[in-house]
Amino acid sequence: MKVIHYSEVNLTRRRGVLIVSIRAIVLLLVLQTALVAAEQPDKVFLMIGQSNMAGRAPLEEQDKKPFVGVQLLNSDAKWEQAVNPLNRYSELRKDISMQRIGPSAGFAPTLQAHYKTKSIGLIVNARGGTSVDQWQPEMPLFLTSIKRWKAAGSPKLSAVIWHQGEANAKDPNYLEKLTVVVNEIRKQTKQPSLLFIAGEVFGDAPVNAKIRSIAKHIPNTAYVSSTDLTVFDGVHFDRKSILELGRRYAEKYIELTEK
Known about the structure:
By secondary structure, this protein is an alpha/beta fold. It contains 8 helices and 7 strands. Helix 3 crosses helix 8.
């Protein structure tokens, strides 16, 4: 019979402890890597505009689930897993009860499904009832949007997604005012060719003709159509349509960046 000495038993125990310790260290490194990845989305988008961007369509139970692979910038300038309402952290939003489902809820999942392994980051900073005049560079809405982007570490933006125009439905100078906004965002972010995608409002408002011609007036811009989309109160897109609008934004982004 082999005699097992105490020193051998002790050595075996030490080896076991060492293996467990190594495994713990590896697990810790994996978790730290995951946390860093969560704080640094692969693609970051600035989502701004008025009420349809903020989201007014009622949320359904299925809309309350967290979005896989999508991060939302919170009020502490940290990235967290996104969950509706996505305009919850807008610095100048209206009451939280008014923040419901917006185009970001259709936009981000469509991109995530397309890119699969890439995480999507959203900086959503919309406020209902605002005109393009209130988004000019010296105004609080513009300033807080840039401030939140800087607080996140000034990440490179993949695009600005803009939905606004209801408050300027008949403004003949809409494009001139919007040009100032686009140029200043590009200046502040030091991205002179930053992609800017606007979206039509509901119906046949004169501002839609301005939005459709945006690429003729401002370089590296595009628009998405609101054709066939429906509203529940005469102005705000219903749940099905706002999600479709978000998908159209995502499809336009993919189309323009994968030519």
